[in-house]
Specification:
- The protein has about 400 residues and is of the alpha/beta class.
- The protein is about 45% helix and about 15% strand.
- The protein folds into 3 domains: about 130 residues, 3-Layer(aba) Sandwich (Rossmann fold); about 170 residues, P-loop containing nucleotide triphosphate hydrolases (Rossmann fold); about 80 residues, Helicase, Ruva Protein, domain 3 (Orthogonal Bundle).
- The chain is built from 15 helices and 18 strands.
- The strands form 6 sheets. The protein has a 5-stranded parallel sheet with strand order 2-1-3-6-7, with helices on both faces. It has a 5-stranded parallel sheet with strand order 9-12-15-8-16.
- Helix 6 packs across helix 7, helix 10 packs across helix 12 and helix 13 packs across helix 15.
- It is globular, with a radius of gyration of 28 Å.
């Protein structure tokens, strides 16, 4: 099996370096050679994005392999490192592995052992590179560019989001569960003048109502039993940045007045406190409820609703943007291919049609779960309908096969 990977070989013995380099090149590796630590670091600086594996002698004229290992791990997180020695001991090998070496080999052992170690190290490094790249592309910075889709309904939402992001206005994101409301909130923050400051998310349905106030606004020492010291609330943690109130429709009525005051004055009083705390935060809220109807019926404070809904954005359900389903499914296939070290080649047409015909009540979150399940079930080749849960078939299939 031929490999396409770049290796760095650091070995001060010229003949051995040439022999090892030739062995590796015959397997398809591109080998960069260095005769000491200084040359090794120069090559790492120049080829940091390419080098997958570093093979390094333990004893070098200007250093040793263990110190090289520590420096490489600190400065270059990508490559795996294999140490080589003429006189290996179990103790030295254990020490090297504890410090992050992928393997510890004794010179003069079989070429097969070296090649197996290099192949495994290369595969691990390559997988890390793929996952890192995918995570960078798929939303590490949560910009509008990372939100996948070309449907007209989504394009309109992205245009509205881009316009309001540059302001400091309060935004209310509306949409069903799983449509990506938090992703849009993060995109608003990333495109705003506050992007260098904290983004703090609060799920109003995740805390018991008796804890929500103390978590959001903080408390003073002695405010209640167990309050052994002052505690910053999430509004204070978000000072200068953006606070995202998810499921804001679940907020207890007794707290709605306090939230309204924060929005209007940018001040609040901690539990057990007497002096107001001033903050500067931009608020983005999200709900899967019809807050306007709830405000009209008295289940939500109308004045808070009007303050939250300065700029409303409704995020479309996945079934309203069918043309984006193959794009999103392909995106998740790439992600899980990398995370599970699979090499699935794509999705069959019938598989895609099943995805497009399904109503997706759980929206993008549900699609992601279905794709993860499909990748787990598939061993190789294409994803087919047999890898889908039975509810996506519509009518039950006459033959159920997991390929």
């Amino acid at each position: 099996m031929k490999h396409e990977a770049t290796l760095l070989l650091i070995e001060d013995e010229n003949n051995l370096r040439k022999v090892l380099s030739r062995v590796l090149e015959l397997e398809g590796y591109q080998v960069l050679q260095a005769k000491n630590a200084r040359e090794g670091f120069e090559l790492l600086d120049a080829h940091a994005d390419e080098i997958e594996v570093v093979l390094c002698d333990v004893k070098l004229p200007d250093g040793n392999g263990l110190s090289m290992l520590r420096k490489v791990k600190e400065k270059y997180p990508q490559p795996e490192m294999i140490l080589m020695t003429a006189f290996g001991t179990i103790q030295d090998g254990v020490s090297a592995m504890k410090q992050g070496a992928f393997d510890y080999l004794t010179k003069g052992e079989s070429d097969d052992q070296l090649l197996v170690a290099v192949a495994r190290a290369s595969e691990k490094a390559r997988l890390r590179m793929r996952v890192t790249e995918l995570e960078r592309h798929l939303g590490a910075k949560h910009t509008l560019d990372t939100i996948i889709g070309n449907a007209p309904a989504l394009k309109q939402v992205k245009e509205l989001t881009a316009r309001v992001a540059a302001t400091d206005s309060t935004v209310l994101l509306e949409g069903e569960t799983g449509v990506g409301k938090e992703l849009f909130a993060q995109a608003i923050h990333s495109a705003s003048p506050r992007r260098g400051k904290p983004f703090v998310a609060v799920n109003c349905s995740a805390f018991p109502r008796e804890l929500l106030e103390s978590e959001v606004f903080g408390y003073r020492k002695g405010a209640f039993t167990g309050a052994a010291g002052d505690k910053k609330g999430l509004f204070e943690e978000a000072n200068g940045g953006t606070i995202f109130l998810d499921e804001v429709g679940e907020m207890p009525p007794e707290l709605q007045a306090k939230f309204l005051r924060v929005l209007e004055t940018q001040t609040f009083t901690k539990l057990g406190g007497t002096k107001p705390t001033r903050v500067s935060v931009r608020l983005v809220a999200a709900t899967n409820r019809d807050l306007q109807a709830e405000a009209g019926s008295g289940r939500f404070r109308p004045d808070l609703y009007y303050r939250l809904s300065v700029f409303r954005i409704r995020i479309p359900a996945l079934r309203e943007r069918q043309e984006d389903i193959p794009l999103l499914a392909g995106h998740f296939l790439q992600l899980f291919n990398a995370k599970m070290n699979r090499r699935l080649q794509g999705m069959s047409e019938e598989f895609v049609q099943k995805l497009k015909a399904y109503p997706w009540k759980g929206n993008i979150r549900e699609l992601k779960n279905v794709m993860e399940r499909a990748v787990i079930l598939a061993d190789a080749g294409m994803l087919t309908p047999g890898h889908l849960p039975i509810e996506l078939w519509g009518a039950a299939p006459s033959l159920w096969i997991f390929r």
